[in-house]
Amino acid sequence: MRTIFHLDLDAFFVSVERILDPKLNGKPVIVGGDPKYGRGVVAACSYEARAFGLHSAMPIRTAYKLCPQGIYLHGHGDEYSRFSKTVKNILEQYAPQIEQASIDEFYIDMTGTQKMYGSMFEFATRLQKEIWDKIGLPISIGIGSNKTIAKIGSDCMKPQGITYIIPGMEKDFLALMPVETIPGVGKVMKQNLNSRGIYRISDITNLPSDYFGTAFGKYGIDLWRKAHGEGPEYLTTQRIRKSISRENTFDNDVTSDEEIKRTLFYLTGKVCQSLRKRGWEASTIDIKLRYTDFQTLTRAKTIKPTDDDKIIFETAWELMKKARTRRVGVRLIGIGLTNFSPLNEQEFLFEDYEVKRKKMLRAVTKVRDKFGYESLMFGRTEEDKKLKGMENYFQV
Amino acid sequence: MEFEINSKILEKLLSKIIPAIPLRTPMPILENFLFDIKDGLLTVSATDLEIALRTSINIAANHNIKLVIPARLLYDIVKSLEDTQINFSTDGNGKLNITTDKGFYNLSYLSAGDFPEIPVVSKEKEIVIGGNEIRKAFDKTAFAMSKEDMRPAMTGTLMEFDDDGLKFVATDGHRLVKYVNKSFKSELHEQYILPERAIAVLMKLIGESDVKIYLSKIYASFIINDIEFITRLISEKYPSYNSVIPLENENILIVNRTELLSAIKRMMLFSTSNSKQVKFSIAENSLEVSAEDIDHGSNAKENVQCEYKGDPMDIGFNTAYVNDILSHMDDDKLIFKLHSPTKASIIEPTKNEENEDIMMLLMPVRINN
Fold first, then answer.
1. pTM
2. Active site residue A382
3. Percent of chain B at pLDDT exceeding 90
């Protein structure tokens, strides 16, 4: 029998904003953009804002209609990572194994630590207090015999709750909960299940697994198991990074080629920096394009492994041009890199253009790593080319 | 028009010309042989515009005519015939009739007007070189040519005439081979770059007999027995390779070629990543080669007997390049002249054959710790 904790930082982005600016305490706070100019979705909202019916992933304009008095913030991405890291550092002092599921969610495997820490419930209380005292972040903890049940547990007593699902009681614990409590059941799945007369988790367990297998295939069997309180018992601590991607939702729908190109160029620079910092090359480049009516397209191309902004941008721009056939506004674009291999560090005999460029990219990566991404930018437009002394360094 | 020829003689002749027929081409006319019959001499030629092949044979013919005949079809017919006499005749309707004692084959031919003209290289300056010598030169160097079109000059092999002899140089920017045939000292200082395809075809044609070479700025012509081979040259500047040959590599490693090659072949099984890295850990009279397959968590190392005096160092190479180099050397004792883990290494035989000089250069792979 395993003992798995799921720790979920409550309204994480909002909580961090409140540490940075205590005046926000007790007020409805929404992170995710300015509704007057901007768009996009709610990344996080405070419990005060949730009282107005707001929830994360809601379009920011809808949120503004429901809660015009709310405080809308753009958010501080770097700060969130920093705070997340601090929480992880505290967990590392106690937990034999940690899996970071997202920026604000962790699983820890505490199996066999009762002798060291005593009651798991009391240990969870101490952990919660330590994170609150040292950092000031509220966290909810679910304790169970597998990851799925622990995650459901952490969600049901928010904020700052602790739920311990006693091993063997999983099925009873879940019985009365609505089906959408199960991680992975979204709006569409919920509607589908409801239309079959399935509302509570017990409605699932009352049916044979074959029923779900027939209706939803492998996913259905998985759902049936989750409803019985089963789930993965071991953590994936060494996650292999499978992709590096970036996307941007425009403040206003965009129709100009130039603006799309400029944004794609910026996003490409970001993913390439991240790629080079890891000492990797990527061979598959994909782009994402979302029109104003939410029609979303993705296109991908596999090329010779590279870590060069120029090659990646040119490939991505070609894909984008081919994908964008409709004459309507563009809401979002994104770029992703996959299919990684370690950088080929073969040296060259001749100092020609390609070799110089490789060295230049190595240097750019180092400078940006130290002084920030914006400290050094590639030129792109004809205007950039005209800058004094840039004639020979115009690269992309 | 009418002439006769033995099937086996024609097959032998066509088999020498067919390498110039392109496999795929946007110009269908290039998929044909040009038969030029003039005063009892049949000249067959083919070209893909990069290379051309031409040969002649005496026949008994009553007219002068030029015919453009589908190459593969004709070659396949002739190849499948037994030893027999073939009669060719035209009937004036654009049809070529081929008659043997057993059958009758009828195919269309085109007029010669559209067939591209095959360049003529001036025969003023003649170089004569033994077939074996030129074959050896390409055999030692051609493997190092670049397969990428980024630098066109490197996709070919350099033939350079100067005081030291006739030099053959090939490089892809990571490794370089220089082979010097010292019996060809020349006062001229001239460089010609032969494309990869030309070398591949030449290697098939060259036998033991002497080869006559004629060179112009754009074309080179090789006469091998009764065949003339013409190729376009790569009209680019070859990289100044002499400047990258290091002079200060003072760490000398002497190894047995076959022993190292055999170890490298095993290391290749483990160096599967993009850089195909093998590490040489060198200390006084000790060489350990090792490779690691990070994706599958496997690794290998071997000790190879050596003589070494110099600074201890760890240096990485691409296993495929090391394998290539070792496989193209003859001498069983090789010298690695090393400088440092980021600088080029020189690989040479301990003793060169008379009248020749061979040197290979290999850039390392940076070792990540």
1. 0.68
2. no
3. 78
